[in-house]
Amino acid sequence: MAIDPTKIKRYDHGSRVPGWDESADLTKDPAVVPDPATTYVPEPVREAIEVLMGKYPDVRSAAIPAMKIVQREHGWLSPQAMEQAACVLRLTPAYLVAVASFYDMFELKPKGKNDVYVCTNISCSLLGADGVYARMKDEMEGDPDFNVRAFECLGACEIAPMASVNGVYVGPLTEDDCAQIREDLKEGREVLPDKQLAKRKAASKHWKR
Amino acid sequence: MLANIDTILFKDIDEPGLNTREVYERRGGYEMLRKALKMEPGEVLDEMLASGVRGRGGAGFAMGRKMSFIPKGTMDKYLVCNADESEPGTFKDRELMQKNPHLLIEGIIIGAYCIGATRSFIFIRGEYDYVADILDAAVAEARAAGYLGENILGSDHTIDLVVHRGAGAYICGEETALLDSLEGKRGNPRLKPPFPAVQGLYQGPTLINNVESLMNVPVILNMGGAEFAKIGTETSTGTKLVSISGQVKYPGNYEIVLGTKTRDILFDLAGGPLDGRTFKAWFPGGSSSPVMPLTEEVLEMPYDFDSIAKAGSMLGSGAIIVFDDSTSIVDVCYKTAHFYRHESCGKCSPCREGCNWTEKMLVRIKNGDATPMDLDIIESVCSQIMGNCLCVLGDAMAMPVSSMIKHFRPEFEAYIEAKREEAGFGVSIPQVNRGAHAGPGPLLSPAQAA
């Protein structure tokens, strides 16, 4: 069976692998540890990161939690956010980017304000998660307020299919709940209060047999 | 419903305020810490050894023996609690930490005292942010009460505890990748040996244990190791939390005595299949355990470490995922392979390339581009991943995928033919290049080659 070469998705540079066209600018000097004298870091951010640095024997251990702080502050890991974290931690921005690109929860591109992670792993997809995700995307895609992602197992399979909405676990979801989640987030309300995992009892008590 | 469930760790787990120190202490909390501090560290270790408790995270290694590997001496030693619960289907630690965080803290302090560690960490996955908040509050309470910090409870022991939040990576549940991540690096597994017990976090001897394992430590001290060993079977002692999910009536966490019959777990606790369906197969211990068809024989099998291993799978983290006759095995297989392809860290090639190609072949099967020969190639790729990687992530993909092909080959073949016809490729399947001719076969060791 022949493969039609025109149907293969390629990036501008001709490769099928994303990212290779975002090469570093080799004409520039590599970024050094930002100078505290000229780098603006908001005081609460600096304090929070310095508390973290005191918790570990090695300052690099604080890198991941520190990036979480600046990501919350800036919405994503913008170059400016990285510079601020690097300045307090006394590490190079390159080190931080190298670490951040490994982890799913760090966003190196601008993203919507509200994180909606829909689990599409085995347990959830057995109970219809793919439909929920498709519907969620229909509801929210293109809206700059939302960041909808299909996520790997979030560790709440008893409420499958489920989603983590700004860190709040809700489920079991039906496709109709997606519009409600959008409404709740837009209005700034608690998301699906009846379906939150934190309020659920242990399985032997939860199920009425 | 089964009589002896939720007997130890899940006993009264929903008591209001159990996550506060006040209620936890009223129920006898932190008494075992006081008891442990009056004992010699070696005596605590003896109790652990006598209990025969095996690790609850996946590998099922004897916990007491793991503790005994930590060298004596005054070097900086560390205890790390692995709360990076990312194995698909597993959600027991989340519920335990959310509802009873102080039991975990007490277990960690006793464990750290036993091995002589002065610093301990809870590495919790980033997605469990709200659970980490609960842990942070509990740690602050414990510190205020003098259970953590310098000279705990007036003794000359210093034990500190930090809750460290990850940032979303399955591989960080692997112990050496976890250590790298905790050191602020990309979560790549390390070459073993040296094992973490010798050279772990910040190059110091490190004990890494799962949440449920550490929660059993105060329980064992309370009962006495010998008494604890009487629960369960001879080689699988104690109780185990099983996380039941998938196509069952009553999914959730249940605490069972190890050795409970599989039928009782799936039909009695989980309520059996959804209305009008029948069970097809299950993952007995998380998505990385080999899939087993749910035959009568399997339903009669006791649920413990050795019985499942003997039947060709593993108990793993105790995450039971069940699927019924309405589900296509190809979909389950693709989801599994897709997950591991996404989570492979890329450090070693068998896993990075093998997971990638396995997923691609399964996509081909779904698109109708494949022939049954692809099944042979998948099997040959899987066989070359197993045992050839730095860590077990590659094996975790290869084991379930190859077991699904082994048990459900006719269904795969029928699926392939149906999809080919749908896509207009016809059903003519060349019978050459199958079986032994499909791939390069397993690699020869240098000795065999010579």
Automatic annotation (TrEMBL), chain A:
It comes from Solirubrobacter phytolaccae. GO terms for molecular function: 2 iron, 2 sulfur cluster binding; metal ion binding; NADH dehydrogenase activity. PANTHER family: NADH DEHYDROGENASE [UBIQUINONE] FLAVOPROTEIN 2, MITOCHONDRIAL (PTHR10371:SF3), NADH DEHYDROGENASE UBIQUINONE FLAVOPROTEIN 2, MITOCHONDRIAL (PTHR10371). Belongs to the complex I 24 kDa subunit family. InterPro entries: NuoE_dom (IPR042128), NuoE_N (IPR041921), Thioredoxin-like_sf (IPR036249). The keyword Magnesium does not apply. It holds the Pfam family 2Fe-2S_thioredx. Its cofactor is [2Fe-2S] cluster. This is NAD(P)H-dependent oxidoreductase subunit E. Gene3D superfamilies: Glutaredoxin, NADH-quinone oxidoreductase subunit E. Keywords: 2Fe-2S, Iron, Iron-sulfur, Metal-binding. CDD domains: TRX_Fd_NuoE.
UniProtKB/TrEMBL annotation, chain B:
One of its GO terms (molecular function) is NADH dehydrogenase (ubiquinone) activity. InterPro entries: NADH-UbQ_OxRdtase_51kDa_CS, NADH-UbQ_OxRdtase_suF, Nuo51_FMN-bd, Nuo51_FMN-bd_sf, Nuop51_4Fe4S-bd, Nuop51_4Fe4S-bd_sf. It holds the Pfam family Complex1_51K. Keywords: 4Fe-4S, Flavoprotein, FMN, Iron, Iron-sulfur, Metal-binding, NAD, Oxidoreductase, Quinone, Translocase. It catalyses: a quinone + NADH + 5 H(+)(in) = a quinol + NAD(+) + 4 H(+)(out). Its cofactor is [4Fe-4S] cluster; FMN. The keyword 4Fe-4S applies. Belongs to the complex I 51 kDa subunit family. This is NADH-quinone oxidoreductase subunit F. It comes from Solirubrobacter phytolaccae. The lineage of its organism: Bacteria, Bacillati, Actinomycetota, Thermoleophilia, Solirubrobacterales. The gene is nuoF.
